[in-house]
Prior knowledge:
Alpha-Beta Plaits, five-stranded antiparallel sheet, single chain, Barwin-like endoglucanases, about 290 residues, alpha+beta, 4 helices, 16 strands
Amino acid sequence: xxxxxxxxxLAAVLSGCMTxxxxxxxxxxxxxxxxxxxxxxxxxxxxxxxxxxxxxIGNAYKVDDVQYIPSEDLTYNQTGIAGIIPTExxxxxxxxxxxxxxxxxxxxxxxxxxxxxxxxxxxxNGQSVIxxxxxxxxxxxxxxxxxxxxxxxxxxxxxxxxxxxxVLTEQSLAVKNATLGVEQPAVVEQQTTVEVAPAPAEQPxxxxxxxxxxxxxxxxxxxxxxxxxxxxxxxxxGDAVVVNEGGMYKVRIINLDAARAKSVxxxxxTNEGMAPGLLKAGRWVNADSI
Length: 290
């Protein structure tokens, strides 16, 4: 795996190690500010929505003692500094198995699923571009994203700039489904008649929750509403809760023994297309270690 310094440092290439599998990494120093932008851009490049070799989220990992927790966050809307992916990476494979092409509108992220479709706005000039996020990086705390040379040029970035990164929910779900081979759900017309719902039947008492040292993490959100909505859907897999930690709302299934944790992880991978993380007694462990 590789860890590269950005073009601002003349793209000096360094070798490095990380625990997130199959990732190409690179980064450089800068400073960040938060602002707002609203300009919209048309999605008109077919490769942006093409199916990828795989849909990749990955487990929690560390680079230079900094921990990153990938998650599917369709409400992602952050501002910070963006740089430029070194042209030396042209033709190399990205984390999700695609081939990096410097002339396409591409980008990197430390935590977003690969691929994800996002709108990036240069906050210095208001210009925007739609990008396909298909690689991990940049691994410095001062940058939230790196853009391909073509995407950077399109919005007037020569080295680094303040940007707003917004995940496009509909497009991101579409490219995920295309990658996983999932058909788009049909639109169901709603009946106009109003019926009085019968009184709810008495629900049976829930089965006792297993106790154990294992916790499965499904996702992490900046929006509490998104986490609460996922918890309701994930209760079928176990004791699903929201944990407010590190400024994020993390959806977890708690109190699992080893056998139940393994069963839950397999079910989430098969039924939900997720790549859940695993903790044992509060410490991150490999999800395939049990």
